[in-house]
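This entry is passed on directly below:
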Amino acid sequence: MEEKGNNFKIVLSLDEKIKCLEELIIRLKKILYVYDRSLEPDSKYNYRIYCGGVAMYISSSNYLFNGELVSIVVNMTSILNNKLEKAQIKKLVFDSVNYAEFLLSSYKDKKESDKE
């Protein structure tokens, strides 16, 4: 935790950021599964509810990542606020996964370089 004047800011370690991004990637990939299941007759799945939970997780994580997850927040907001076809949802999800994987690899590289 950092102190700036009378304010405190929570700061994640590299290991915590890596773990958070790994969890985020799993949740993002699950969106397509939940979407497919929600289209089945008599399904108890609702992809909008699941996406809302993922969006809340990403939004709160974004603060801890100093705004690096904004593009993923925007993609989740688009999925939640618009009626999109599966292809559009798939594109937004994979764009988000690719970006999260990019961040993950950069944090892993940074962790390795810090060891040296």
